[in-house]
Amino acid sequence: MKVEDIKQRVETCTKCDLCKTRTNAVPGKGDSNARIIFIGEAPGRKEDEKGEPFVGAAGKKLENALAKSGISRQSIYITNVVKCRPPNNRVPTESERESCRQFLFEEIDAINPDIICVLGNTASNSVLGQGEITKNRGKIIEKNGKKYFLTFHPAAVIYNQELARTFESDISTLAKIIQK
After folding, report:
1. Cα–Cα distance between 123 and 80 in angstroms, integer?
2. Span 138-142, mean pLDDT?
3. How far is CA 90 from the centre of its chain?
């Protein structure tokens, strides 16, 4: 399946009630031959307005960390576990995550990256069945023949500036892994 086909299906999806409150569905975006996929939790207000992932404050934090590590935003693919904004930016429910799970796995299969960077507990729980980012961040976990790299969600850095250095260090580690 091609990324463009997945995008069209995401944009017209009505599998859960989030479709009733969204402005735009937010499919993944980026290089369809990317070596790295980044997976976040769900779109926020800016993402819902523009229909693109990581275009708000968290996206700026991620972009800055990528730039410092020599990774261009154009070279990656970025998506979320849930493709529509939950009301008031609440954490998506298990049933909402389940409704979008097929899209996420189709994106991963279509791109077939070398590594999948999982951003935050919700994404980690959804993709790997575990949420202990603090314990596992900065590490690679292999599951079902795929490599996953875990770090904080960039939104966490906004709310807790003490995480900024660690987040940037993790992205730098990821850049070194991908250069090998």
Report:
1. 8
2. 93
3. 16
